[in-house]
Every structure is written in structure tokens, then in C-alpha cells.
């Protein structure tokens, strides 16, 4: 059966009743209770020496249909310093019936927020996050249903001390690749260094997946990487600095500035803010996704800087221009076949960014397939794109683990 036929049965439109229900839920949903085991997220001091991906501690977790274990593991930040990162390793209860050893898929979560209470490992266990976090569980379940083990990272600074380096290319690539190593080394998980691996992510996670697959040859060449799914990736921050400003999702631009400031403190990014901007950043650091959207929607960044210029204007000068260039994804050839997807009318990350990412990789000789995710609704198109993305990711990776050819379509999009 051809790839395009497998997904043709998805509905073209979401019913108006479902859409209305989602709107109501987005406006009324409250946060889940705080995590029950805060001590787990405190790293040992001093941080033990070890190899990237070494497991520092574990904590039994919970997730329907799988043995779930929270892990703290070693990784590296953008400056190549050792850091502790948390996440979850999930091994499905169902037996693996495919060829070889059970595969492991690194799940790179989409935007969970900036506060420690938003860490995806807490949300998966029902201990934190917000309504948006429930979509994380759905994506993970789609992978577990295929019999894959799932290694989910919290990213740098989510749960653990310090700021979350939101959409920072190297930092996110490192933690995604190292959570795969951690899963392979986790005692009692039934996984090993010989386990084949894949990567999947959407939105922030799509950027992290894309970053990981193109940095894997240098950072984690020993991994038997079979493929990566990249959904709605924020690959070009310069474009997003303009498209998000003043819109409903400008809070994500604030998250990006906090993340870049954490990775590049010498640039003094947040020093450009006026008092209103400093207050926004201080508050945004503690929010989860939904709160971050609703609190700051339609704010213009020119109202938050000392000289009244928008953020995009600063990005045209050094050192900010160099930082943005260093965090553009698509500059290296991916190590494995890649499926890149985007909703054509994405209301958060313009679909042209995803298409350009695919073209950039094609120009380097990579095996890339780009396709649209059918829009389910005229509103919340980015969020609802997850519905199609999770099934496409699971099905496409299943074919890679089965050893089937990965047909690309470079030059056709």
C-alpha cells in the first residue's frame, strides 16, 4: 500500500461541536496537581562524572499500557558543559513482534512551558502541566501502540534547576540523543546499545527532532538511527520573530528569548527589555503553555524594549544575528531518512518554514519526504495538527524499523 493512501481516510474537517468544545476547554482548564516527588528533580551535587547518556537516578512512574520509569541522565548544554536532564523511559506491556530488538523512539515534546511544574515527565504521570500536556500523552501512546519503547526528554531546565533552553538547537539535540542512550543503559528495561532508534517530535519537538537528526553523526554516531519524524518545526527563528510578534502566540517568542538568553548569557538579550518587558519575562519563566498564550496574546515586542524597536530589528545586528544563524536548523545533512510535515494553514509556525527545512536538507543530498498534514479546523490549526502528526510519525517509523525503503520526494515540493 502506498504511503499516501495510508492516511487518506483522515477526516478533512473537525466537527463544529468538537471545535467549540476545544475552545471552551482551552479557556477553562486548570492545572494538574504539583509533582508528588520533587526531590527526584534535584540533581546530585557535585554532578558525578560520566558519559553522555549515563543514568544518574530513576523513579518509578505511571503510564497506562507501559512500564514507566523517570530518569535523570547526563547530557551537554550549548557550551559543551555537563548538565543533568530528566525524562521518562516507557516500555510497552505488549511484546515486540517485529524484526530484531525492540526499537526505541526518542519523543521530543512540543511546548510544555517554562516553569518546572510543566516538565513533560510530570505531565505524563498526571502530576503537572495543563490541558496542552494531555496531547503529549496521546503522541506517546501512538508510539507505544506500535510496540516501540519511548524515551521522552524534559529538555534542559524543565524540572531540573536553571532556565529551559527553549528551541536552542544544540542543547535540544543533545538531550534528545542522550535520552536514547539513557534508555539503552537503563537496567531492567530490556533495551540495549544494539536497539535500533528513531526520533519523533512536533512543534518545539519537531525542531528538537530535526536538530538531533542532523547533529547525530557528530554527537552520537554509535546510535543505529533509522529515521526521524519532524512536524511543524520552528527551524528559522528570524522568520518567527516577525510572524509571532503582536499575534496570539507572541508568548512563544518570549519563551524563545528566555531560552536563548539562558544559552548565550554573554549577549545580554534580556538587557534590552524595558520595565514592562522585564516583568513579562519574569512572569513567563513560571508559566505552562496555555497560561503563556493567554497572558501575553497580541502584545507587540516594540512595547517591551528600551528603544521601542521590535525584537526582529535587533536580530539583524550582532551578536544576535550570529546567534539566530547558529540556531537555524537545516544546515547539516541528516543522518537518516526524514519525514517532514506541516499543516498548510498553521497559525503558529508558518508552513513555509517547514517546507524550506525540507528543501535545505534535499540540497545537501538527504533522503527527505515532505507532505502536508490535512487541516482539521479553521482555528487552532497548529495544535490540532498533532492529531495527524502522531499517527503519521508512528506509521512512518514502523516502516523504517521494518526495513522498508523510505521514498523521498525532493524536487517535488
UniProtKB/TrEMBL annotation:
<dbReference type="GO" id="GO:0016042">
    <property type="term" value="P:lipid catabolic process"/>
</dbReference>
<dbReference type="InterPro" id="IPR005152">
    <property type="entry name" value="Lipase_secreted"/>
</dbReference>
<dbReference type="InterPro" id="IPR029058">
    <property type="entry name" value="AB_hydrolase_fold"/>
</dbReference>
<protein>
    <submittedName>
        <fullName>Lipase</fullName>
    </submittedName>
</protein>
<keyword id="KW-0732">Signal</keyword>
<feature type="signal peptide">
    <location>
        <begin position="1"/>
        <end position="36"/>
    </location>
</feature>
<dbReference type="Pfam" id="PF03583">
    <property type="entry name" value="LIP"/>
</dbReference>
<dbReference type="GO" id="GO:0004806">
    <property type="term" value="F:triacylglycerol lipase activity"/>
</dbReference>
Amino acid at each position: 500500500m502506498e504511503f499516501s493512501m495510508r492516511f487518506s481516510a483522515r477526516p478533512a474537517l473537525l466537527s463544529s461541536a468538537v471545535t467549540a468544545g476545544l475552545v471552551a476547554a482551552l479557556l477553562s482548564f486548570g492545572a494538574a496537581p504539583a509533582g508528588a516527588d520533587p526531590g527526584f528533580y534535584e540533581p546530585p551535587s557535585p554532578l558525578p562524572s560520566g558519559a553522555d547518556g549515563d543514568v544518574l537516578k530513576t523513579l518509578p512512574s505511571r503510564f497506562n499500557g507501559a512500564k514507566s520509569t523517570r530518569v535523570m541522565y547526563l547530557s551537554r548544554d550549548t557550551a559543551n558543559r555537563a548538565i543533568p536532564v530528566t525524562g521518562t523511559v516507557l516500555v510497552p506491556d505488549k511484546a515486540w513482534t517485529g524484526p530484531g530488538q525492540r526499537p526505541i523512539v526518542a519523543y521530543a515534546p512540543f511546548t510544555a512551558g517554562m516553569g518546572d511544574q510543566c516538565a513533560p515527565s510530570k505531565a505524563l504521570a498526571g502530576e503537572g502541566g495543563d490541558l496542552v500536556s494531555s496531547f503529549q500523552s496521546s503522541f506517546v501512546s501512538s508510539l507505544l501502540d506500535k510496540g516501540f519503547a519511548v524515551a521522552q526528554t524534559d529538555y534542559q531546565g524543565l524540572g531540573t534547576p536553571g532556565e529551559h533552553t527553549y528551541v536552542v538547537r544544540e542543547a535540544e539535540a543533545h538531550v534528545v540523543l542522550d535520552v536514547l542512550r539513557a534508555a539503552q543503559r537503563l537496567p531492567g528495561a530490556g533495551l540495549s546499545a544494539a536497539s535500533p532508534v528513531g526520533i519523533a517530535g512536533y512543534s518545539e519537538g519537531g525542531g528538537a527532532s530535526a536538530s538531533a537528526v542532523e547533529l547525530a553523526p557528530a554527537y552520537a554516531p554509535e546510535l543505529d538511527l533509522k529515521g526521524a519524524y519532524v512536524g511543524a518545526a520552528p527551524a528559522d527563528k528570524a522568520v518567527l520573530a516577525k510572524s509571532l510578534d503582536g499575534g496570539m502566540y507572541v508568548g512563544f517568542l518570549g519563551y524563545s528569548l528566555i531560552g536563548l538568553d539562558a544559552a548565550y548569557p554573554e549577549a545580554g538579550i534580556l538587557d534590552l527589555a524595558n520595565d514592562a518587558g522585564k516583568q513579562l519575562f519574569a512572569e513567563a519563566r513560571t508559566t505552562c503553555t496555555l497560561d503563556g498564550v493567554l497572558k501575553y496574546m497580541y502584545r507587540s515586542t516594540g512595547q517591551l524594549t528600551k528603544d521601542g524597536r521590535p525584537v526582529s530589528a535587533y536580530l539583524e545586528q550582532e551578536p544576535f544575528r550570529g546567534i539566530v544563524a547558529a540556531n537555524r536548523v537545516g544546515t547539516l545533512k541528516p543522518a537518516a531518512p526524514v519525514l517532514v510535515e506541516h499543516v498548510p494553514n498553521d497559525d503558529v509556525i508558518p508552513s513555509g518554514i517547514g517546507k524550506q527545512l525540507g528543501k535545505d536538507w534535499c540540497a545537501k543530498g538527504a533522503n527527505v519526504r515532505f507532505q502536508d498534514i490535512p487541516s482539521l479546523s479553521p482555528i487552532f490549526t497548529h495544535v490540532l495538527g498533532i492529531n495527524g502528526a502522531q499517527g503519521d510519525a508512528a506509521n512512518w517509523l514502523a516502516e523504517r524499523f521494518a526495513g522498508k525503503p523510505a521514498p523521498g520526494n525532493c524536487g517535488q515540493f
